[in-house]
Design goal:
Shape: globular
Number of helices: 9
Number of domains: 2
CATH architecture of the largest domain: 3-Layer(aba) Sandwich
Number of strands: 4
Distance between the termini: 56 Å
Mean pLDDT: 85
Structural class: alpha/beta
Order of helices and strands: EHEHEHHEHHHHH
Strand content: 5-15%
Length: about 210
């Protein structure tokens, strides 16, 4: 059994490794060793998370996926959460989250009957917390949209200022045909930013692209 730690933050401005010490402490208190760390800045509401799926690809049956909270693993809608659960089940990975005490015993090897019972109980708790995390995500998005609408109505909404220097570098790399992965690694931008800037590049007049 190997313990693999997963750390996630939603934006590049946030510190995805913030909870690393807490996960390390949890493992040490139980005599466990974390063999690898998987850290990324991606939305928990999206399945497009390279590090999470690299973790699952590296796993062997019985390995532990250790995370700080269930919402680090999922803020997915019901359909995408089912897909992720199916992938976890296919790899026979045990999910242990610091905010889910029922999962702690999964970090130790037990007899087959006890393991199956714990898996069943933990699966129900994971479903519940994943649903709560999704609702929290949707509630925050709704409140944010309401706040923006109010600000626009009052004429005070300006939106997030564009990082012109970074975006110019991304556009340059897109024109050179660089891969999205290399652009993300170099600029720490999100995939949505690349998609938006790629559309901007496509809409540029041909003479501009020839410069």
């Amino acid at each position: 059994m190997h313990v693999r730690a997963y750390l996630r933050a939603s934006t590049k401005e946030q510190d995805a490794s913030r909870a690393k010490a807490d996960l390390q402490r949890f493992a040490e208190e139980r005599g466990l060793k974390i063999v690898s760390w998987y850290i990324e800045n991606e939305s928990g509401a999206s399945l497009a998370r390279p590090e999470l799926f690299r973790l699952l690809s590296d796993c062997h049956p019985g390995d532990v996926l250790l995370c700080e909270q269930v919402d680090r693993l999922s803020r997915l809608n019901a359909e995408d959460w089912s897909k992720l659960k199916a992938e976890i089940a296919a790899k026979r990975v045990r999910v242990v989250a610091l905010d889910l005490p029922t999962s702690y015993q999964l970090a130790s090897v037990g007899d087959d009957f006890s393991s199956r019972m714990l898996d069943a109980i933990n699966g129900m708790m994971l479903d519940m917390l994943a649903a709560i995390a999704r609702k929290d995500y949707e509630d925050r998005r709704r409140r944010q949209a309401q706040g923006i609408a109010t600000a626009k109505a009052d004429g005070v909404y300006k939106g997030r200022p564009e990082d012109a220097q970074r975006n110019a570098e991304i556009v340059r790399m897109l024109r050179e045909g660089k891969s999205w992965s290399s652009i993300i690694a170099a600029t720490r931008c999100s995939r949505s930013t690349i998609s938006r800037l790629l559309q901007r590049v496509k809409e540029e007049p041909e003479e501009s692209l020839a410069e």
